[in-house]
Amino acid sequence: KDSQSLQLCLKKNIYMNDAEILNKLNSHSAPCGETLGLRCIRFQSEPPEIEIEFEAKYEFTHSEGQVVQGGFVAAMLDAPMAHLLMGLYEEPITPMTLDINVSYLAPSKPGKLNCVAEVVQCGKSTAFMSSRLYQQEKLVATATSTVKIVPIKS
Questions:
Q1: Residue 56's closest CA among 45, 64, 67, 47?
Q2: What is the pTM of this model?
Q3: How many angstroms separate the CA atoms of 8 and 79, rounded?
Q4: Taking the CA of residue 69 as centre, how many other CA atoms within 13 Å lie in the half-sphere pointing to its CB?
Q5: Are strands 61-62 and 67-68 parallel, antiparallel or unpaired?
C-alpha cells in the first residue's frame, strides 16, 4: 500500500492507542450493528485494518433457513469498512458509502462470520476500501467500496 496516500486523508488518532480505539468502537453500537451481532475483535492503525465478528441469525435466511440473504451479507461487508475509518480519524466522522460492489463466492449460513476490512487508497474526503467475509475460515464474499468522509460538526 502507498502509505503516503493513506496519510493524506488520515488525521491519525494520536490521543488513543489501537486497544483504546477498539474499546471505543465496541462501546458505541448503532441499532443495525446490534441486529447483525457486530463485535469488533481487532483494530490496527498501521497498516489500517479491522476485523469484526457477526452473528447471522435464522431470521436473516431464505432457502428453509440454510442461506443468509445477500443484503445482510452486504451489510456485514460494509460495516467494517465504515468502522475502520471511524477508528482511524481523530475527529468524529460519518463514513457515507457512495457505492459498494459485492462478490458472493459461497453461501453464508446462520452462525458466526468474520470480516476483515482495509483501506485501499484515501484522499482528503474520499476513501477506497475493501473487505473480505469469512465463515469457518472459508472466504464467502468480498466487497470494494467508495466512501465519502463527512466530518461531524459539533
A1: 67
A2: 0.92
A3: 23
A4: 10
A5: antiparallel
